[in-house]
Design brief:
Strand order of the largest sheet of chain A: 1-8-7-6-5
Oligomer: heterodimer
Strand content of chain B: 15-25%
Radius of gyration of chain B: 26 Å
Radius of gyration of chain A: 20 Å
Structural class of chain A: mainly beta
Distance between the termini of chain A: 22 Å
Number of helices of chain A: 1
Shape of chain A: globular
Helix content of chain B: 10-25%
């Protein structure tokens, strides 16, 4: 049974103001979401795919943005809309399919970082679209919306805990220093704000750090069973301790891991890495640009990219740093992946990342500007055998194949938002030689009602 | 229309021609001050001289006769002239060689004077034809009108404007009318030659009103000249009469042209083409369609129906037989024969029965039509409308009337010396006809592309959108630098064109085109945006600035910021948007976004 995803206004509520409606809705009948597939939105036991197109104009609303859910291998698809979408919202800038409520079906997180909130222009919003038999939508916003904060730029979730990044928030009065908001969807209440000035978080918010640019939630060495939060600040300067407006090496980037983030209230416990503490780092590396998390058994894997890192003797050719943690070991750096001498400056190795533990732990590294014509590619890296990596390409000049990557079960999902202009997603099964291209208006994937796709595949999840 | 020439056939055999016979009309001998060679080209004679330079008949290294135009030293010394000249010629080389003299080469001579090399078109300039033989017959006139319109279409599609179309620049050759001398006018125009040589580019009487007024020159200026040229060729007199520069300019701006009596549809087309308002004139493609029987739409009415397939039009076009004026063939033959080139460089149209070199070994002249040519110097007799399909060869004996007085180089021209046996010639003929067909279809397809169906109000949704064809950059992220560090521009949707109103703005020239845009800065630095808005190039390469109703981007785009807007352009009737050009970021590189 396919779900009707055209969501009615009554289902869309603002989390912060009408939390009680959530409790009523949560008492819905049990679902048939009994499969093991972690991104099964419709409950048929098969993993699904979410695809964002933040520049689409559904219903003639310029730049409102659109999201499609593609079922299984793309045999069917639905466009997801929310009624309050307005022109220029950028709905679908970020997407993530993950189990959030307890019904066993995947739920859909959608960022709309350019949505106006309470009169604040481009403050940003996040939508939680619940999958399974009880479709309902919740809108998450900052409890104190700020213009141009871009809440929803990045998303992460771990069960009921949802994190939304607002990297352009002038947190603590510092321009674009950035903040992250946490929502516990099992409890009602406002989102909780974390910035670099939060107690116990190492470092200081400095202008343009963009803390919250990327996010992940997982098992990263805190109390077993408690979620830990990883936050990327790719524009953090490597300038030592204490707040400094300038100086040091610009935009090297940093990673902050906050342990047991759900339970902490008065003071956080965290660990922070500047890139130079792990590898040779230089100005402009942008460590923390993208991240991805997976776990296998007791081990949690976190990959964090620096797409302009200098590795393999090639400046700005990009790198991806792997971290590992377990119930007994706190998070620590592991292998560093790069393109070796084949890399070239500005190819964007690590522009996007995705992890899967299904069928061995594999990392997908998007290289969307690979090739002289920027056709792009994706490097698939088996974590236990990095030498066995392979480059996946199924693209033409200017496609930007690998702008976004994701996994749907063990299938690789690659966004090529500039393929044929309007964008394509390529679905590649583990043993497939050739991927399946999917785009709105082809097969059973519906074209947008009253509008056109523009950047389909800019986000996948 | 069989305006097809075989070019580039084997010209390497045989002796090089001498210069002693260069004494025919149209070709003068070299003067003592002329160099022997310019670049790799050996000069043979002079084809003409103007205020800007000299045109020579020359031989390419492979033995092919070419026209070589070299700029006068005093023009060439001007700062930056050579660069402009070569840039213009490079553009001209993109023009399809369909009813034009193909631009073959350009370079700079030993004396630093830039030159350009084109095909040598043997034939009679239209100006000389009219002055010596009077008005053209209706059939020939129609062929000239069609051929020149086709040439203009090819020139305009390449994004160029001829700027100096006049009867002297239309050569009536055996293979059809050919337009010459395009491509460098703009380079010449931007010199200060007005004060230096006393000659204004373009020629009085062949200017469009906007040229006289010093306004922007668009392809419509060539259309105006086309209308005057057709009237001149059909009546034997200029539609604005004779007079000096000031007289002609005054008449041009104050009185309608006297188009005389022209056969339909040329009367109507010439009238439209000579409209004072350039935006009211048809395009070259409109003229082409009308001349092959497709009719022409008034600028305010819908574009020609798309129902009739281009192939039909193309075959119609091919059935328009070119009738060269009776005097043309011998003249061109003599010119080439004078250079002993005729035998080795066929200029004859492929439809003709080739002279058999085995049976006429001493006849270097190319074949001529069976129709007996009129005596030189007298008006050509009326000709019947063509009834012969161009796929049918003319038959009959080939008079070798050009042979007297011309020597055949000893030992030359054994059977097959042209490198083309009759059988091979027929192959060439077939290929050439196919090539003409292909070019025609391309030209017409260009015209028959999607037209806006909805000419009504601008409104939300996609109803007014044109269906884009081919590769465009719509939906693509475009950056001037790094995708990680610099702002990106996205044209998310195909332009909405054919609008009669956008918000409170209404078009002045034709119809409005609204192009949505999004700029997003995913980098860490605030980007200063260019204060110069993007220019829209239409499908013939004319640049259009945006209308004031367009969204003005902010001065700076902070990190993470996204702005959406609309650029609105006023396009003349039947023009389609092609690409946006300009800079997005202050001091940034030039971008180019194909929008349809």
């Amino acid at each position: 049974m396919r779900l009707l995803l055209s969501l009615v206004a009554a289902a869309a509520i603002t989390w912060s103001s009408t939390g009680s409606a959530w409790s009523d809705a949560a008492s819905a009948p049990a679902a048939d979401c009994t499969g093991t597939a972690t991104s099964d939105f419709d409950g048929d036991g098969v993993d699904d795919i979410a695809v964002g197109d933040p520049f689409a104009d559904p219903g003639g609303l310029a730049g409102a943005g659109a999201v499609h859910v593609l079922f299984g291998r793309g045999e069917d698809g639905k466009a997801v809309t929310v009624p309050e979408t307005e022109s220029g919202d950028g709905f679908g800038w970020s997407v993530r399919l993950a189990r959030i409520d307890g019904d066993g079906c995947a739920d859909l997180l959608i960022g709309a970082p350019y949505a106006d909130v309470a009169g604040y222009r481009d403050a940003g919003a996040v939508y939680v679209v619940h999958g399974g038999p009880d479709p309902r939508t919740i809108r998450l916003v900052s409890p104190s919306p700020e213009a141009d904060a871009h809440f929803g730029w990045s998303l992460a979730s771990g069960e009921a805990l949802v994190a939304a990044g607002a990297p352009h928030e002038n947190a603590d009065g510092v321009a674009d220093s950035g903040a992250v908001y946490l929502f516990d969807t099992e409890a009602s209440g406002e989102g909780r704000r974390i910035s670099q000035e939060s107690k116990g978080v190492t470092g200081n918010g400095e202008a343009g750090d963009m803390f919250g640019w990327s996010l992940a939630i997982g098992r990263l060495g805190g109390t077993p069973g408690e979620p830990d939060l990883a936050v990327g600040s790719p524009y953090e300067n490597d300038d030592g301790t204490g707040p400094q407006a300038a100086g040091g090496r610009l935009d090297v980037g940093a990673l902050t891991v906050i342990f047991d983030v759900r339970g902490s209230r008065s003071e956080y416990r965290n660990k922070k890495w500047d890139l130079r503490e792990i590898v040779d780092a230089g100005a402009g590396d942008r460590f923390g640009y993208a991240m991805a998390y997976a776990e296998e058994g007791d081990v949690g894997y976190l990959a964090v990219s620096a797409p302009l890192g200098d590795r393999g003797g090639v400046r700005d050719s990009g790198l991806v740093q792997l971290f590992q943690a377990s119930s007994t070991l706190e998070i620590a750096p592991a292998a560093t992946f790069d393109q070796g001498p084949e890399g070239a400056a500005g190819e964007g190795y690590g522009f996007s990342l995705a992890f899967t533990a299904s069928g061995g732990v594999r990392l997908a590294v998007g290289v969307p500007f690979d090739g002289p014509d920027r056709r792009g590619g994706v490097r698939l890296v088996p974590v236990d055998d990095p030498a066995g990596s392979r480059l996946v390409t199924q693209s033409q000049a200017g496609d930007h194949f690998g702008w976004a990557v994701g996994f749907s079960g063990n299938r690789l999902v690659v966004g090529a938002p500039d393929q044929a202009g309007a964008g394509t997603v390529i679905l590649l099964g583990r043993n497939d030689a050739q991927g399946v291209p999917l785009s709105p208006g082809t097969g059973k994937i519906p074209a947008l009602d009253g509008g056109a796709s523009a950047d389909f595949g800019a986000a996948v999840g | 229309m069989d305006n097809v020439a075989i070019r580039g056939t084997d010209c390497e055999e045989g002796n090089l021609p001498g210069e002693e016979d260069v004494n025919r009309p149209g070709v003068e001998g070299l003067r003592s001050t002329d160099p022997e060679r310019i670049g790799a080209y050996r000069l043979l004679g002079r084809l003409g001289e103007g205020g800007m330079g000299t045109v020579y008949l020359a031989l390419a290294p492979a033995g092919r006769p070419v026209a070589l135009k070299v700029v006068k030293a005093e023009v060439a010394v001007e700062d930056g002239f050579a660069a402009r000249f070569h840039a213009e010629v490079d553009n001209a080389r993109r023009v399809a060689s369909f009813c034009t003299a193909q631009v073959l080469d350009n370079g700079t001579g030993d004396d630093n004077r830039p030159y350009m090399v084109t095909e040598y078109i043997a034939g009679t300039p239209l100006s000389r034809q009219i002055s010596e033989h009077g008005a053209l017959e209706p059939g020939t006139l129609h062929g000239v009108a069609l051929g020149v319109a086709a040439a203009l279409a090819a020139i305009h599609v390449a994004g160029l404007v001829h700027r100096d179309l006049k009867p002297a620049n239309v050569i009536l050759s055996m293979s059809g009318p050919r337009v010459i001398d395009f491509g460098i006018a703009r380079a010449l125009d931007s010199t200060h030659s007005f004060t230096r040589s006393g000659e204004v580019l373009g020629s009085p009487g062949w200017w469009a009103p906007e040229q006289v007024q010093g306004l922007d020159i668009t392809p419509a200026a060539d259309i105006f000249a086309w209308g005057c040229l057709v009237a001149y060729a059909g009546n034997g007199r200029h539609p604005y009469g004779r007079g000096d520069l000031l007289t002609m300019a005054t008449r041009l701006l104050n009185s309608p042209p006297d188009l005389g009596a022209l056969p339909a549809p040329l009367n109507d087309l010439a009238r439209r083409a000579t409209a004072m308002d350039p935006y009211q004139r048809p395009t070259a493609q409109d003229l082409l369609i009308a001349l092959v029987g497709g009719g022409i739409a008034a600028p305010s009415s819908p574009a020609p129906t798309r129902a009739d397939p281009p192939t039909l039009i193309a075959s119609d076009l091919l059935h328009e037989s070119w009738q060269p004026p009776a005097n043309v063939e011998p003249d061109s033959t003599q010119t080439l024969s004078a250079l002993n080139l005729g035998a080795r460089f066929p200029v004859s149209p492929p439809i003709q029965e080739p002279a058999d070199p085995a049976t006429a070994p001493s006849t270097p002249a190319p074949p001529v039509p069976s129709t007996a040519p009129a005596p030189e110097g007298s008006p050509s007799p009326p000709r019947p409308e063509p009834t012969t399909s161009p796929s049918q060869p003319f038959t009959g004996p080939v008079p070798a009337r050009a042979s007297s007085g011309f020597r055949l180089p000893a030992g030359s021209d054994p059977p097959g010396a042209e490198g083309t046996t009759p059988r091979r010639r027929w192959l060439f003929a077939g290929l050439a006809v196919l090539a003409a067909l292909a070019v025609t279809v391309v030209v017409l397809l260009n015209l028959r592309g999607p037209d806006p169906d909805d000419r009504g109000e601008a409104r939300a949704g996609s109803a007014a959108f044109t269906g884009g064809t081919g590769a465009t950059d719509v939906g693509r992220r475009v950056t001037t630098g790094s995708f990680l560090e610099d702002p990106q521009l996205i044209i998310p949707r195909t332009p909405a064109c054919g609008l009669t109103v956008y918000r409170n703005a209404t078009p002045v020239r034709g119809r409005l085109c609204a192009i949505p845009w999004t700029l997003v800065n995913t980098g860490a630095e605030a980007a200063r945006l260019s204060r110069t808005p993007l220019t829209l190039l239409d499908d013939v390469g004319t640049a259009h600035p945006p209308e004031s109703v367009s969204t003005e981007p902010p001065a700076t785009l902070p990190p993470g910021a996204k702005v959406d807007g609309v650029l609105v352009y006023d396009l003349p009737p039947s023009r389609k948007p092609a690409k946006l050009t300009g800079t997005v970021i202050e001091g940034g590189g030039e971008i180019e976004v194909r929008v349809s």
